[in-house]
Amino acid sequence: MINKIIKTFREKERILVMFSGGVDSTLLAKIAYDALGERALAITVDSPIVPRSEIADAMDMAKIIGIQHMLIRINELDNEEFKKNPANRCYICRKIRDYIIGSWAHNAGFQVIADGMNFSDLGDYRPGLKAADEDGVWHPFIEFIIPKDDIRAFSKDLGLPSWDKPSTVCLCSRFPYGFEIEREMVTRVDKAEFFLKDLGFKEVRVRCLPYDAAVIEVDNIDLAFRSRDQVISKLKELGFLFITLDLEGFASGKMNRAIKKSGTREQ
């Protein structure tokens, strides 16, 4: 299957890969580089809503692959509609990014923009996918019906260190829809999650709720209880007034449950 994708890539003149450094886009960048060499470029969005650690990971992954790599600065929080955090927030975000990256790509001579959306993404609420489709972004892993598990397996076979990396999404996913997002709050969440990962948690979400409340989701609840005093002290230092532990543990996409329950999906 990978050889089929490489063959398809070779039919393109130049390809720009939207590159977060996660498992999906890393495999895509590897395939693009193997197929096109210097005619492939990985571009990473440097934004306040992207964890600082993810920017560093993307830079490291690009070096490992060997692909040309650049950062492009985008601040979605400058958009007032985005800041309101509606249910179609990801649609708005993707439209902003596609416009800026698409304009740059056109001026630089890239006719094809590809991203790492995979076949498994079709089973969740993905308004960003609708925006990308509207903007003509190519999704090779959807076209070739490749789910997340296969992407991890292919990445492991190729020796990519990202193969078992936990899924990551932008920091805005930590806020309930309709709760207006400010940069200071996003930065606070980023610092809190970095601290928790430094304690030894692999999968972490710090959900930010009204009244400066933090709801912590981690993959190891026993460790969370053992680290209780450290966690409370640090998160209060960061500005949280209430710190709670989600006994269900880590689960990606929890904020989408409210959307699915209500049946309200914008865009």
What does this entry look like structurally?
Helix content is 46%, strand content 13%. It folds into 2 domains: 163 residues, HUPs (Rossmann fold, 3-Layer(aba) Sandwich); 81 residues, GMP Synthetase, Chain A, domain 3 (2-Layer Sandwich). The mean pLDDT is 93. The relative contact order is 0.14. Helix 1 packs across helix 2, helix 2 packs parallel to helix 3 and helix 9 packs antiparallel against helix 11. A 4-stranded parallel sheet has the order 3-2-1-4, sandwiched between helices. Strands 5-6-7 form a 3-stranded mixed sheet, with helices on one face. It is an alpha/beta fold and 267 residues long. Helix 2 links the parallel strand 1 and strand 2.
Keywords:
single chain, 267 residues, alpha/beta, Rossmann fold, GMP Synthetase, Chain A, domain 3, four-stranded parallel beta sheet, three-stranded mixed beta sheet, 12 helices
As a percent range, the share of strand residues is: 5-15%
- CATH homologous superfamily designation of the largest domain: HUPs
Specify the CATH architecture of the largest domain: 3-Layer(aba) Sandwich
Uncertain stretches of 5 or more adjacent residues = none
With helices defined by DSSP (H or I, 4 residues minimum), what is the helix count?
12
Structural class: alpha/beta
The spatial strand order of the largest sheet comes to: 3-2-1-4
End-to-end Cα distance: 32 Å
The largest β sheet comes out as:
4 strands, parallel
Number of strands: 7
What does the overall shape look like? globular
CATH-defined fold name of the largest domain: Rossmann fold
Radius of gyration: 19 Å
Kindly give the count of domains: 2
CATH class of the largest domain: Alpha Beta
- The quaternary organization reads as single chain
